[in-house]
Design a protein that fits this description.
The protein has about 525 residues and is α+β, with helices and mostly antiparallel strands. It contains 23 helices and 11 strands.
């Protein structure tokens, strides 16, 4: 590493430490404010005021560091603007505190204010900065990102749990449900952290968090998940729970500082994530697929510099068949673009079966609406054949949307198109005959595969296709036999059209937008030409 890179790495690490300290102190201030408000100022008054001074000290140290000329020169202009925005938000904290002191704000509003106006924007900035660090290791940065999100949810549990024990809110089912949802978020982030982290990163937790604290924390969460009675849950006072979780979160903060120092390290050679990245050769793949990515409606409006900067944060990974990408209600930490292969979006039914909502192929996206809205995943997703996907961290997407009107419009167009497709899918399953559904599906495959001789390869099992088209496998097989009578060649893994226009009767406006002949004299469905969206028009 040359001296310039070393200098930038050190500055990035120092800035991450200072941002992390501000987040840590605001998280603690949030918890103090909750007990202050719940007790109507009877407890935690001095603690809250003392914490305000500590928080302000961390913010001033961050502000002074960001004002240094060498730091400003080393940071990209777009990130410097983000820091200015954050520091501006921190300047509004006195107004929030005055309302809390006067008991002029409800507990929930105060909690949400601290969370959504201060901690989450700062954590997003930390994740982006870690990804910008010149020598970072992408797998370790992903683990660090999930760690930060996990720590934030534990901080939320400190605040909510203290309230639950102080006000006996665990006797309220709605409160317990909210708490269980928070625990589920924590588990998702923690499990993802463990899956991505190197052994040394995981070991940091054992070195910095007391086993007794972690055990008590896990015990309460388990009781809540199991729907235990309030008598079993209410082991602590609000103050005791606050102290217990504060001790644990302080340990997590120490681990966080150590994680920052190791972000430029190399993953363990036997770590599965390291194997995947080595096998793929992400740099070469990025260059190979760049023209394809540039052609997608989501990215087409970006100029080359903006696209390259966005892709600098991206990862390309290959996923084996049956790999579960994410489950419904998990945090949406990345947006995915399918480069090659197929993924099914589905939801489980109470019967134990699954309803396949969409089959997504090359060029289609996953979790774009969840990333845009900062919401959990609305569906589960699983790979149905070996698939290559590009993913971009959610904080990067949200930050780019704020600074790039072109990307914001493209995201809205993508979300709108997905909504339109879901309506079409509903229409397909409810209003169209089995032959119309199968014909539409085969036409879609034909347009995606662009086969010169009219051969359509079935990319996954017929049982999955039948489920996606809302029919039984035997109905799908019988329908294919009808196509066979119309001159189609039907084999186990492929179907061959008798001519190029054989499926055009099943076309719709969405499929027409992917057809090269839609504006030509040879198109048998010219009525769709005017309905096709042209990005350059």
């Amino acid at each position: 590493m040359d001296k310039t890179s070393q200098f930038k790495t050190r500055l990035a690490q120092d800035l991450l430490h200072k941002l992390g300290e501000v987040v840590h102190q605001i998280q603690r201030e949030r918890g103090c404010s909750g007990l202050f408000l719940d007790s109507l100022g009877k407890i935690f008054t001095k603690r809250y005021e003392a914490q305000i001074l500590t928080t302000d000290g961390a913010i001033e140290e961050l502000r002074a560091y960001c004002g240094r000329p060498d730091v400003k020169d080393a940071l990209p202009s777009s990130f410097e603007a983000r820091l200015t925005f954050l520091l501006g938000k921190f300047a509004d904290l006195p107004t929030v505190r005055d309302k809390i002191r006067l008991l002029a704000v409800r507990y929930t509003l105060a909690l949400n204010n601290y969370t959504f106006n201060y901690t989450i924007p700062a954590i997003d900035a930390m994740i982006e900065l870690a990804q910008r660090e010149p020598q970072h290791n992408s797998a370790l940065v992903s683990a660090y990102s999930n760690f930060l999100q996990w720590k934030e949810r534990v901080g939320m549990e400190r605040a909510l749990g203290a309230r639950g024990f102080y006000t006996f809110s665990f006797r309220n089912q709605e409160f317990c449900d909210r708490f269980v949802a928070l625990v589920a978020e924590q588990k998702a982030y923690f499990d993802t952290f463990k899956a991505l982290a190197s052994p040394s990163q995981v070991a940091l937790l054992q070195d910095t968090v007391k086993d007794s604290d972690l055990e008590a924390f896990s015990q309460i969460n388990k009781l809540l998940e199991d729907g235990a009675s309030p008598g079993e849950i209410e082991h602590y006072s609000g103050e005791t729970w606050f102290e217990l979780l504060t001790r644990m979160i302080d340990g997590l903060h120490a681990a966080e500082a150590a994680l920052v120092v190791g972000l430029e390290g190399v993953s363990a050679p036997n770590h599965p994530r390291a194997k995947a990245e080595k096998a793929i050769g992400a740099t070469g793949k990025m260059a190979e697929y760049r023209p394809f990515l540039k052609s997608l409606p989501l990215l087409a409006a970006l100029d080359d510099d903006d696209l390259d900067e966005l892709l600098s944060f991206a990862q390309i990974r290959e996923y084996e068949k049956d790999k579960l990408l994410f489950l419904r209600d998990e945090p949406a930490i990345r947006m995915y673009i399918i480069l090659n292969g197929w993924v099914k979006a589905f939801n489980g039914l109470e019967t134990g079966e699954e309803a396949i909502l969409q089959m997504l192929g090359a060029g289609e996206t996953l979790l774009e609406s969840s990333v845009l809205l900062n919401m959990p995943a609305p569906v589960s997703a699983q790979v149905v054949e070996k698939t290559l996907m590009l993913s971009i961290p959610a904080p990067v997407i949200r930050q780019r949307i704020q600074s790039s009107p072109q990307l914001a419009v493209s995201m809205l167009n993508t979300v709108s198109l997905r909504s339109q497709r879901l309506v079409q899918q509903l229409e397909l399953s409810r209003l169209k005959s089995a032959q119309e559904r199968v014909g539409w599906f085969l036409l879609r495959l034909s347009l995606n595969q662009k086969s010169a001789d009219g051969t359509i390869f079935l990319p996954y099992e017929k049982s999955i296709i039948a489920s996606y088209l809302d029919m039984r496998p035997e109905t799908f097989s019988r329908t294919l036999q009808k196509f066979k009578k119309d001159g189609f060649e039907v084999a186990t893994g492929h179907i061959k059209m008798p001519d190029n226009n054989a499926l055009c009767q099943f076309c719709d406006a969405e499929l027409a937008s992917h057809c090269a002949r839609v504006d030509s004299e040879n198109c048998p469905r010219p009525e769709f030409a005017e309905l096709v969206f042209h990005p350059d028009a």
